[in-house]
Every structure is written in structure tokens, then in C-alpha cells.
Amino acid sequence: MNRQSKQPYKKSQAVKQLEKMANIAARAKNPNIPPEWLAPRKYRDDSANNLTKCIIHFIRLIGGQAERIANMGSLIDTRVTFNDVTDRTRTIGSKKWIKGTGTNGTADVSATIKGRSVKVEVKHGKDRQSEVQCLYQRNIELAGGLYVIATTFEQFYNWYNLKFE
Question: Cys staple from 161: which of 5, 21, 99, 165, with CB 3.0 to 4.6 Å?
Fold first, then answer.
């Protein structure tokens, strides 16, 4: 088989800047601890989860408010397993999925930056925006909010600098 080798991860300048900002903030928060004792803050943007963390931490470091939004339902499991009188294992009950209560198509990150409502949709790799997410984006923009699709931290960082700096 001809397998393509995966390229090693290379941090962008934006991720390095985020690490620098986080290290400075950690030193300021802990002035009585020698800097060499503080563990260096490390970030990556090579997965959707890591990219989301980068974005949230960056927004908080610049004085904004950011939170991850999860619009997932929950699994209710009422199954009970027991041994009957003949010592056979029996299971009764069922599992049921309950729909989430959030807005369909909601963005991954909800933030306030310099008084503006910002929604960030994180898309990594081949992930694409769904029709419901496009409708949500239109609604946010019609209401005067900002909406951005982030595919890398560098792309989000450049967007931020264009919009707010």
C-alpha cells in the first residue's frame, strides 16, 4: 500500500504569539513564583478541539469573554442488569436520546470582544458549514453581530486584527 506520510505539526507565528501572551499573563498572575518554575503554556491548532481552545484562551487574554457552546442532547439510560433466580444475567430498561435545548446551527464559541457579540464556528480539515449553520450565521449578522469561520488559529488571529486593531 502507498500511504501518504503525515506532515509533522509546525506552529504558526500566531500560535507562538498566543503562547507568549499566555506566558506573560501567567507571570503577571503569579508574581511571587520565579519565572523558571512556571510551566510554559503550550498551544496547537491541529485539531478542532485544540483550535477551539486557542481561540477561547486568546479572547480571554485580550480581555474579552468567551465560552464554548455545546448544543448536544443527552443519553438517558434506564437499563438495569441483574441475575434472575436461575442465575442468568438479564437486562431490562432502555436507552433514549433526548434532543438538546440550544439553537440549531449554533456556533462553537460565543464571545464578546470590545463590546461586540462574536460567534466563531470552528472548522478543521474537511469539515464544512451545514445549511442550518449558514442560516444561523445570517441571523447573527442581521442582528448586528460578527460571525467568523475559523479553520486555523492564524486565520482567526488575522481576522481579529482586521476587525479590532
Answer: 165
Kindly state whether residue 8 falls inside one of the protein's structural domains.
no
User: Do the domain assignments include residue 2?
Assistant: no
Domain count, the chain: 1
CB 165 within 8 A of CB 17: no
Question: What is the per-residue pLDDT across 10-69, written as a single tens digit (0 to 9) for each?
Answer: 999 999 999 999 999 999 999 999 988 999 999 999 999 999 999 999 999 999 999 999
Task: Let me know if residue 87 belongs to a domain.
Answer: yes
CB 102 within 8 A of CB 54: no
C-alpha cell of residue 105: 446551527
Q: Domain for residue 134, yes or no?
A: yes
The CATH number assigned to the domain holding 155 equals 3.40.1350.10
Residue (of 96, 51, 103, 45) closest to 75 by Cα position: 96
Q: By the 8 A CB rule, do 90 and 76 touch?
A: no
Q: Of 56, 53, 49, 98, which is closest to residue 78 (Cα–Cα)?
A: 98
CB-based contact 86:78 (threshold 8 Å): no
Neighbours of 103 (CB within 10 A): 12
C-alpha to C-alpha distance for 90 and 130, rounded to whole angstroms: 42
70: containing domain:
13-164
